[in-house]
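#structure-requests
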Amino acid sequence: MSLPPLAIYVHVPWCIRKCPYCDFNSHASKAEDIPETDYLNRIHEDIRQDASLAQGRKAQSVFFGGGTPSLLSAEAIGQIIRWLEQYIGLHDAAEITLEANPGTVEAHRFAGFRAAGVNRLSIGVQSFNDRFLQTLGRIHSAGEAIRAIEIARQAGFDNFNIDLMHGLPEQSEAEALADLHQAVALAPRHISWYQLTIEANTEFYRHPPTLPADETLWDIQQAGQLYLAGEGFSQYEVSAYARASEQSQHNLNYWRYGDYLGFGPGAHGKYSRPLTGGGLSIIRTKKTRLPKDYLNSDRPLVRQEENIGLADRPFDYFINAFRLREAVSLRQFEQRTGVPSATLTPILTLLLTRGLISWHNDLVATTDNGYLHLNDVLSYWLE
């Protein structure tokens, strides 16, 4: 049985400030207080420890997420890339993305990141409106965000994503569309545009802001999608829009149920392994979460490993695959889960009769109505 493609995720857990909406594994720290040397030492050990899980596959993508990875020096990012190449291997055309804060200090490091081997940036703008940036706790202004993107292009980054949020506190449809207009004017290849949600364990959860009414949120979503489509940005995933052939290869690997190795505090991973005599085991991993524990050489790097049983794999697969607008191949489902596609017949038949999916030979896709109600579609696996 052939193994799925492999990707790599590297987590950098530090931020200058914790945003009130953020529930990610991020921790406020002054740039000068980030223990870069200790972090590199543990990342090195982490990569060496898990390299065998690649099972001879080179990685097709690398994603530095956070936190704010652009707080690390270009030398540190370059060293991690070299270790990944040394111990695992990277495809010649590997997509190497780094999440970047558009603050002035980080922007001036972009040329160094490009020289270190990063070939794609994901720039966390969130809004081009200073009022909303202040509400969201961002440390940059709209002007700084625009300037950072100009600096990125001057540094040689012709491939970059702009990260935007909508449905912000008291945001109007016109204000949400103004953000999209400004983003498109900056000529990115990819835009991540997603609705603000209030997550547990955040400042917004403890002190909820006033969000737009549901009718306004719907109008924003519909108008924004129509505008992006008209500008040549196709929606290929719930919150991802790209020009032709410019989809994020790293994210596509997640949604197509590929394998990925996670390095750094709290990083998640998933890897497949053929079983003797046939079949496939699928393991999810989670690294030690808190930076102080991860950096402690007396503590284990891996906090948790979970074997995904055969009964759980269909839901685990489709909760990812149905995020994409593309059709799902049942042949690929079998290859990547080790579960016969015939076991899906009862539930797919039910979804088909209710108009939530289309099903032609090997290909299954959500209908427009099904895509609008993904939670309902997925709930059938939980009944």
